Amino acid sequence: MGLHRLRTRILAVGHRMVAAGLVHGTAGNMSAKDRVSGHVLIKPSGVSYDALRSADLVLVDRHGNVVEGRLRPSTELPMHLRIYAAMPEVMGVVHTHSPAATAFAVARRPLRTALAESAAIFGPEVSLAPYETTGTARLGLAAARAMKHGPAALLENHGVVAIGASVEDAFVHALLVEESARVQWMAEALGGAVPLPAAECRRIRAAYRERYGQATR
Ligand SMILES: [Zn+2]
């Protein structure tokens, strides 16, 4: 797949992030790794999603040197690069401050899985990544560690990071984190969500991985 196509896909994900209410203005960011070169295409810093064009996305090497682009990359670039370095299978990263999930992140409460649908993706919980300063590689390392068992983490006092085998998958995972957080928040008013037992979460996830999708894929 050419870089041009990857640029279009990242831009489309940016627009889906806005439409889903996960980000607004210039907040949050997303990136994808180019399979051929191993370079990373990322949102530029300080450009709002409505103004963003695919040509504005910045191509960097694994050390963060700009390979292509006239704008500065997102300030969270070190986090993205650290995640790609820690998990070679990851091809897309999405970072948001979506409100319900961020409420759990600032309360420093992991998102214990209560929805069967979430169990299929996340297993027993979306874990907390211990607080690290924004814009640092240490934040990426904390996030990568917290995502050992699932494709998303809550960044303490900050927001959400999600990964995937594509930037689209990373987006879907970020969306599911927000939906799970919203449901749990509402359930608090009813006495609190009842988490699914960890063993059941693992069983659902294993079954999902085996059966979901098309056999030809
Ligand atoms: Zn952020």
Explain what you see.
A hairpin with a 6-residue loop joins β1 and β2. It contains 7 helices and 9 strands, in the order αββββαβαβαβαββαα. It has a 9-stranded mixed β-sheet with strand order 4-3-2-1-5-9-8-7-6, sandwiched between helices. α4 crosses α7. Helices cover 41% and strands 17% of the residues. The chain has one domain: Class II aldolase/adducin N-terminal domain (L-fuculose-1-phosphate Aldolase). By secondary structure, it is α+β, with helices and mostly antiparallel strands. The protein binds zinc ion. Zinc ion (ZN) binds next to loops.
Helix/sheet category:
alpha+beta
Count of discrete domains: 1
The CATH architecture category equals: 3-Layer(aba) Sandwich
Query: Averaged pLDDT, please?
Result: 95
Going across the biggest sheet, name each strand in turn: 4-3-2-1-5-9-8-7-6
Helix proportion: 40-55%
Multimerization state: single chain
State the helix count: 7
Bound molecules: zinc ion
Please mark out the parts with pLDDT under 50 across 5 or more consecutive residues, or reply none.
none
What's the CATH first level?
A: Alpha Beta
CATH domain topology: L-fuculose-1-phosphate Aldolase
Largest sheet: 9 strands, mixed
